[in-house]
């Protein structure tokens, strides 16, 4: 009797009586996989659409206004230069990438302790924060020639300039994220007997990660800009140096090719931070997708 009832219940649910697992589960996982793939294609399309539109407007502007080649080259000429000068561009871009990366990593390494100090010390917040703001008022383009004079034409002044440009958004976002914890969460941690360190590692730090990664995304793009500014002012290698040389000889195809590679470096570093955020802070992305209705 019991077996008959069990079989009847299984039949009403729509599953075979002897089925060990839900046969619909693979179907659900397949649907989720298709949705993720479609979402990925949609994101790639959204990224590529502005690039395609830019090339179309570029081409139309040359055709309509009859712009001379030495002023604005054809898109296909720039692509051909990218291929023909690929070895030179790879060598110069590697220098720029190293300067940007080391400057960014230095900014992260210094910004995190400073942000923690600003969070836990009111005196430090009152004394250090104004200095940080004043340091951002001074244009980095004005500092770049001094750094080149003091440190030479090597990578050191470019790394330092990349650090100076990327440091401020990282430290501000990190401090904001650490201070953005709701008071009731702090009261909850204290009521459970958590120490200051436990409150920091289990409450403040996880809640600050989305804002922290937002600062990293801004900082990594600023680091590339800082390194390029240093190369424009004075350098023996790098994409900025290559651009100055190409512009002096009116080789606008190479200038535009260098700009494309510069943009590629910035995008690649930004995407790397984005992927790291998806890995370490998956709940932040899920929340954004829910807000966008994805």
Concise structural overview:
The chain has 294 residues and is mostly helical.
Can you walk through the features of this model?
The protein has 2 domains: 26-67; 71-292, MetI-like (MetI-like fold), CATH 1.10.3720.10. It is 84% helix and 0% strand. The chain has 12 helices and no strands. α6 packs across α7 (156-179) and α6 (140-151) packs across α9. The two termini are 49 Å apart. 26% of the residues are buried.
Give a quick set of tags describing it.
mainly alpha; disordered N terminus; disordered C terminus; 2 domains; globular; 294 residues; MetI-like fold
Q: Which class do the helix and strand fractions yield?
A: mainly alpha
> In one word, what is the shape?
globular
Q: For the terminal residues, how far apart are their CA atoms?
A: 49 Å
What is the CATH homologous superfamily assignment of the largest domain?
MetI-like
Average pLDDT works out at 81
Number of strands: 0
Please, how many helices?
Answer: 12
Secondary structure topology:
Elements: H1 2-13, H2 25-65, H3 75-84, H4 86-120, H5 122-137, H6 140-151, H7 156-179, H8 183-191, H9 196-233, H10 239-248, H11 252-280, H12 282-292
Helix pairs in contact: 3-11, 4-5, 4-7, 4-9, 4-10, 4-11, 6-7, 6-9, 7-9, 9-10, 9-11, 10-11, 11-12
